[in-house]
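From the methods appendix. Each design record in this collection lists the tokenized structure first, followed by the designed amino acid sequence. Records were kept in a plain field format so they could be parsed without special tools. The example shown here is representative of the layout used throughout.

RECORD:
FOLD TOKENS (119 positions):
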């Protein structure tokens, strides 16, 4: 079960890296994506929720827990749908970038899980 765990590990690094930026320098991260700057606390609240997910993904990968990899697929699909819905209801188009990254990550994990199951 190496490939699903590798995908989960890479995903955890992406999430934790993005979270570090959102929590420590949200203005820079938002600016990099062309999203309007905000002084609202909600960007950091979202970062804290993502931090919790990143820790779960990292620990799951560290322990080689394929169940966490499996559970991450529908969770990330939910995020993709949510990003599209938020964009469709007036959110910035840049949300589609995050949705595309989530989609790529979940497809990698899903494909790796299917490949391992076929063996």
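DESIGN:
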């Amino acid at each position: 079960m190496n490939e699903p765990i590798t995908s989960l590990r890479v995903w955890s690094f992406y999430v934790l890296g993005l979270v570090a930026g959102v929590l420590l320098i949200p203005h820079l991260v938002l600016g990099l994506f062309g999203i309007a700057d905000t002084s609202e606390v909600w960007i950091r609240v979202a970062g804290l929720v993502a931090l919790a997910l990143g820790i779960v993904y990292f620990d799951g990968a560290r322990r080689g827990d394929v169940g966490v990899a499996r559970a991450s697929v529908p969770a990330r699909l939910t995020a993709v749908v949510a990003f599209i819905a938020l964009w469709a209801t007036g959110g910035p188009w840049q949300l589609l970038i995050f949705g595309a990254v989530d989609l790529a990550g979940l497809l990698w994990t899903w494909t790796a899980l299917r490949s391992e199951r076929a063996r």
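APPENDIX NOTE: The two ends are 10 Å apart (CA to CA).
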